[in-house]
Specification:
mainly alpha; single chain; about 425 residues; 16 helices; globular; Amino acid/polyamine transporter I
Length: about 425
C-alpha cells in the first residue's frame, strides 16, 4: 500500500477518519443531534372542509331544476293529452312516488359520493355490457339535458314576449324599431343577410342571454352560501305565488262543481283527446289504455332525481359520519328526495287539473295566450272556460300580480336553461 503524500497534505483516509473518535456506548454524541432536512419547514396546512348545507337548503338548489318544469308542464300535458292531461298526470305521480322515489332512495345508499346511478352501475355491471349500458344511459342523459335546457329557455322567452304589461310591450316595440333603424344603415349585402333576423323574439333572446350569463357566473363560482340564499329566495317566492294561482283555481272548482262534471263528461265520452279513439262509456280499460302511452312524453322532471344524487356531497350529515358510508348524508338525502317528489306531484296534479278545466281549449293552442304559459295566463286574469275572468277566482290576480309572477318564473326556466 503506497504511503500517504505528506508533502501535499493529502491523506488516503476519508475526512471522517480524521475526526474525533466515536463516543463510547452510553455517552452522548458530540455536537447537536442531526436535524431532518425539512425540520424548519412550516407544518402542512390542513385542507379546508368542503362546504355543506342543511338538506332543506339543498332542496332549494335542486328545485331550480326539478320544480322548474312547472313553468310549462301543464301546457305540455294539455298539448299531448288534451282533456286527459289530469289523468295522465295521476299516472306520472304514481310512477314518481311508487317507482322512481324508492329506486333513487336505494341508489343514494349505495352511491353516496355524488356519482349517482352511473357510478353504481359501473361497479355492479362489469365488462363490456356494463360499459355499453353506461353509454346508453349517458346518451339519454345528454338528450334530456339538451332538451330541457333549450325548451326551458324557449318557454322563458315565451313568457317575456307575451307579458301583456303595456310598458313592457312598448319597450319591445321600441327596441324592435331601433334595430330596424340601425339595420337601415348597413350595406346592401348586410341588409339582405339580416332580413327578418331582428324582431321581438330577437330582443327577448338577447335579454335572456344577458340574464343567463349572469346566472352562469354564479354557477361557475360553485355552491356558496350566497348562491344557496338566492336559490332559496327564488324557489320560495315562485312556489308561494304559484300556490296562490293554483289554490285560487281549486277553490273556484269547488264552488263550481259543474265545471268538473263537464270535463269528466268530455273525458268519458271520448272527447278528451282530439284525434284519439273514443273509449266507450264505462270503458275504464280503454281510458287507461289511452293514458298509459302518454306517460313517457310527460316525464320531464325525473332528471331532478339524478341531480339530487349528484348534489349529495353538498348535503350536511352528522359529525360522526363514516366518510365511506355517511349515514347522516344518506338519511338527509332520502328526506330531500321524498319531500321533492311529494311537492312536485302535488303541484303537478293540481296545476294540470286547474289549467285543463278552467282554461278554454282554444286559448291553450294560441301563442300569446295560454300556450306554454297556462299558469301565467291565469295569473294575468285571462278568461276562464265559463266566460268569467280569472279575477273571479281571486281579486288579487290580474296585470300587477301576473307581471310580478313572470320574473321568478322566467328565472326558474333560465336557471334550468
Amino acid at each position: 500500500m503506497p504511503a500517504p503524500d505528506v508533502l501535499s497534505g493529502e491523506s488516503a483516509d476519508p475526512p471522517s477518519s480524521r475526526s474525533e473518535p466515536p463516543s463510547r456506548p452510553g455517552e452522548p454524541p458530540d455536537g447537536p443531534p442531526p436535524q431532518p432536512a425539512n425540520a424548519n419547514a412550516d407544518p402542512p396546512v390542513p385542507a379546508p372542509a368542503p362546504f355543506r348545507a342543511a338538506w332543506p337548503w339543498v332542496l332549494c338548489v335542486i328545485g331550480l331544476d326539478y320544480l322548474s318544469t312547472l313553468a310549462y308542464q301543464p301546457s305540455i300535458a294539455f298539448g299531448a293529452a288534451g282533456r286527459l292531461a289530469p289523468l295522465v298526470t295521476v299516472l306520472i305521480a304514481l310512477v314518481t312516488l311508487g317507482f322512481a322515489l324508492p329506486v333513487y332512495c336505494y341508489i343514494a345508499g349505495r352511491s353516496p359520493h355524488g356519482g349517482g346511478s352511473t357510478a353504481l352501475l359501473e361497479r355492479v355491471v362489469p365488462g363490456w355490457f356494463g360499459k355499453l349500458l353506461l353509454l346508453v344511459l349517458l346518451a339519454f342523459g345528454a338528450v334530456d339535458l339538451v332538451f330541457t335546457r333549450t325548451f326551458s329557455t324557449a318557454t322563458a322567452a315565451e313568457h317575456l314576449t307575451f307579458n301583456p304589461h303595456p310598458q313592457w310591450q312598448q319597450a319591445l316595440d321600441d327596441a324592435t324599431r331601433w334595430g330596424d333603424g340601425a339595420r337601415a344603415g348597413l350595406p346592401d349585402w348586410a341588409k339582405q343577410r339580416s332580413d327578418g333576423l331582428w324582431h321581438r323574439q330577437t330582443v327577448v333572446s338577447l335579454v335572456i342571454l344577458v340574464l343567463s350569463t349572469a346566472t352562469g357566473l354564479l354557477f361557475f363560482r360553485g355552491y356558496t352560501r350566497n348562491f344557496i340564499r338566492l336559490a332559496a329566495l327564488t324557489v320560495l317566492v315562485y312556489l308561494a305565488m304559484t300556490l296562490v294561482v293554483i289554490g285560487s283555481g281549486v277553490a273556484y272548482l269547488v264552488d263550481h262543481p259543474k265545471l268538473i262534471a263537464s270535463w269528466w263528461a268530455d273525458v268519458w265520452s271520448g272527447n278528451g283527446r282530439p284525434g284519439a279513439e273514443a273509449p266507450s262509456p264505462g270503458g275504464w280499460g280503454a281510458l287507461l289504455g289511452a293514458c298509459i302511452p302518454l306517460v313517457p312524453a310527460l316525464c320531464l322532471g325525473l332528471s331532478g332525481f339524478e341531480l339530487t344524487l349528484m348534489a349529495m356531497p353538498l348535503v350536511r350529515g352528522r359529525k360522526d359520519d363514516d366518510p365511506q358510508k355517511p349515514r347522516g348524508v344518506i338519511r338527509n338525502t332520502r328526506l330531500l328526495l321524498t319531500l321533492a317528489a311529494i311537492t312536485m306531484s302535488a303541484y303537478l296534479l293540481t296545476s294540470t287539473l286547474v289549467t285543463t278545466v278552467l282554461i278554454p281549449p282554444g286559448a291553450q293552442e294560441v301563442n300569446g295566450q295560454a300556450k306554454y304559459r297556462s299558469l301565467a295566463y291565469l295569473a294575468h286574469g285571462g278568461a276562464l272556460s265559463d266566460g268569467q275572468p280569472a279575477t273571479e277566482m281571486n281579486p288579487a290576480l290580474g296585470l300587477a300580480f301576473g307581471t310580478a309572477y313572470e320574473p321568478p318564473r322566467s328565472r326558474f326556466s333560465r336557471s334550468r336553461g
